[in-house]
Queue: 2 jobs
Job 1
Amino acid sequence: MFTLAFTRRYSMSHRLLSLYNGPCGVPHGHNELVTVRLQARHPEPLDGQANMVTPFHAAKKRWHAWIDERVDHTLQLSDQDPLLTYFREQEPSLLDRILVTPGDPSTEALAACFMAKVSTFLAEQGGDLRCVEVTIEETPTNTVTFEGDPDLVLPADRFPEPPWWKRPDGSINDL
Ligand SMILES: Nc1nc2c(c(=O)[nH]1)N=C([C@H](O)[C@H](O)COP(=O)(O)OP(=O)(O)OP(=O)(O)O)CN2
C-alpha cells in the first residue's frame, strides 16, 4: 500500500478562550505546516508504465489551493468568541477571512476540520483517494495528528448541516 503525503505551510492567528488567562487567550499567530496522507481507496499494483498511484499535482491541487487561498492568513476563532460580534458590527468585510471552529480553534479542532474538508474535495474528485491522516505542526515543538472520522469528534450542533468543513467549496465559516 502506498501513501502519498503532501505538506503545505500557512500563517494563521487564533486565540483559545479555554486558556483565557494565559498567553493563548490573546490573539497570537503561528506559521503552521499541514500534512495530509492519502491512499488509494482500491489499491492496485504499479502498471509498469506510469507507475503512479496518481500524479502528485492531481492529488494535491484542490487541497493546496484551499489552504493557500482560504486558510492562509486567517484569524481562527471559536464560534462562541465575542470577537465575532466585534467583526460583525465593526469590520464585516473581514468576516470572510475568519475561520470558525465549534469551540476553541485548537490544533485538534483544526485537524479534524481539515480531515473533513480534504475528504469532501477527494470525494468530489471521484473518490479514488482517501485521506487517512492529517498532521498539523502548530509550532516546531507541538504537533497534532488526527486519523479517523471527524464526525465522531467535532461537536457540530451549533452549525448548519452540512457545516463548512463538510462542504466541497471554499468556505471556512458559516457566518
Ligand atoms: N492540546 C492543545 N494545547 C494547546 C494548544 C492546542 O492547539 N492544543 N495550543 C496552544 C497555543 O496555541 C500555544 O500558542 C502553543 O502552545 P505552547 O506549548 O505554548 O507553544 P510554545 O511554542 O511556547 O512551546 P514550547 O516548546 O513549550 O516553547 C497551547 N496549548
Note: The two ends are 41 Å apart (CA to CA).
Job 2
Amino acid sequence: MAPVVQVKNVYKSFGQNHVLRNFSMSVHSGENLVVLGKSGSGKSVLIKCIINLISADKGHIKVFDKVIHNMEQDELDKLRARIGFLFQSNALYDSMTVRENLEFPLRAHWSKAQRRKGADQAVMEALDDVGLAHTVDMMPEELSGGMRKRIALARTLILRPTIILYDEPTTGLDPATAREISQLIIKVQKKYNATSIIISHDMNCINMTANRVIMLIDGRCYANDSYSNLRMSRDPKIREFFD
Ligand SMILES: Nc1ncnc2c1ncn2[C@@H]1O[C@H](COP(=O)(O)OP(=O)(O)OP(=O)(O)O)[C@@H](O)[C@H]1O
C-alpha cells in the first residue's frame, strides 16, 4: 500500500537559512510516526510543507498518493479537511463553551441540516473519547491545562481526520497528565486507525506512542528507527537526545 504521506528529497530555505536539505520520509497507514529534532531544526516547517502552508523549494510531497503542489485550492481544502491538527497552544476559543468550541469545525464542514441532526451526538462522542463528557457546558478557563489539551484533541477528532498532526502534545504538562495524553494518542490510533505525525521532545511520550521515530538533524532524516533501537545507539548525535 502507498504511504499516506511521502516526502521525497525536499529542500526549504529562508534566505541563507537552509532548513530542510534533501529531507525524505514516509508515513504509513495507521502508524504513529514521531519526528524528533532540536529546537529550530525545522519540524514545524516540515509539517507546514506537508499541508502546503509553505511550499518546498525542491523535491516532492505526496499525501494520499497525490502531489500536493499541483493541487487546485478546492482540492487542497478537501485534503486539509481530512487532516486534524493538535496545536501546542490548543487554540481553544476562550469566549466559547466546550460545546461551542467542538461545534466550531462542524460549521465549516457540515451543512445546517447535518448539524441539526448530528452535532449533539458528534460533540458528546468526541468528548467521551477524551473522557470529558461532563465538561460540555464549561468554559475553557474553568479547565486545567491537561483538560484543555484533551478538549482540543476532541475538537480535532470531531471531523474524523484520517491524518492527525500533533505538535508537542505533552509540552508544559506534568508527567502524570502528559502520560494521559500519550495514552489518548494511542487510543485514537487504535479506535480510528488514524495515521499520525507527532512532533515531540518528550522521551516518555515518544516511548509510549511511537511506532517509528525520524530524527531531523542538519535538515535531513538522520535516523529512522524504533525508539528502542535509537535508545541503544552509540551515535553521538543520537545520544544527545537521550543523555
Ligand atoms: N516563515 C518563516 N520565515 C523565515 N524563517 C522561518 C520561517 N519559518 C521558520 N523559519 C526558520 O526555520 C527554522 C526552523 O523553524 P521551525 O519552527 O520549523 O523549528 P522547530 O524544529 O519546529 O523548532 P521548535 O522545536 O522550537 O518549535 C528556524 O530557524 C526558523 O527561524
Note: Residues 29-40+80-242 form a domain with the Rossmann fold fold (CATH 3.40.50.300).
